[in-house]
Amino acid sequence: MIDDAEVLAFIARTEASYPPDANTASAAENRAYYDAMCARFRAPRPDGMIVTDRLVGDVPCRFYGSETRVSVLYLHGGGFVVGGLDSHDDVCAEIADAVGLQVVSVDYRLAPEHLWPAQILDVEAVWRALDRPAVVVGDSAGGMLAAALCLSQKDKRQPLGQVLIYPGLGGGGNALSYQENAEAPLLRTSDVLAYQRLLYGGALVTDPLARPLSAPDLSGLAPAFIVTADVDPLRDDGKAYAERLSAARVSASWRNEPQLPHGYLRARTTSDRARRSFHAIIAAISGFAVSGETRNVTL
What we know:
Order of helices and strands: HHEEEHEHEHEHHEHEH
Number of helices: 9
Shape: globular
GO molecular function: hydrolase activity
InterPro entries: AB_hydrolase_3, AB_hydrolase_fold, GDXG_lipolytic_enzyme
CATH topology: Rossmann fold
CATH class: Alpha Beta
Domain Alpha/beta hydrolase fold-3: 72-265
Organism: Ciceribacter thiooxidans
Number of domains: 1
Distance between the termini: 48 Å
Number of strands: 8
Pfam family, one: Abhydrolase_3
Oligomer: single chain
């Protein structure tokens, strides 16, 4: 139940450009709706922000700020079907400005033109090409890719930390949030399933990288900060993953945001709840960067 006036206004403003049926439209139509919505919400970059586009591991990326000893690797959301360098441009610019670190945003390939595992292969290629430590951050589909990157690098070079923002991690089934929030604003359970069909081409995919909650062993992964929206089918994925990481002796914290729906990062300038959550995300990124550098120096 949402009764926060600021959040309700955000939902109405979003749906004015991105109606509920956009999630089940064709990929081209969905992208047109999504791009229009993102443009409506896009905030100006902080003054003086240096931004450049270039290939990293043959994958298009956007760099925010001058090079720093530690980077932030950002993986955008969009159900693996929509989104790109422009959709989260303002978020990435604000993170770079707030934490004082260079942010690298990855323009991974999208479905249905490119089925899984094209997306994680692109992210891995960028990770291998980066020549410095980094905190990996992702929202929604990008949150799953951030978790998958850590899993793919198990027993290899791990990120300094993983910040997962309302991630989809392969849960569902009997999880309460998929039932309780089946008709939630901005993302319904049916939308989640529709995106999965496009990503996997209708095939049954059991790859743990595609469903991190199914991974048999989470030990040795990067410490995690997981934040979820309470009014979101994906809410319990984040909770369950934090619990599994903790059980594997990985430092993990979970923060759930009451009354906020999926995609609330775009409400950070108009909603006090979303603003406070964004500040917590910034703090987590900074904390992982500082503690990670300390660990590296100690080692």
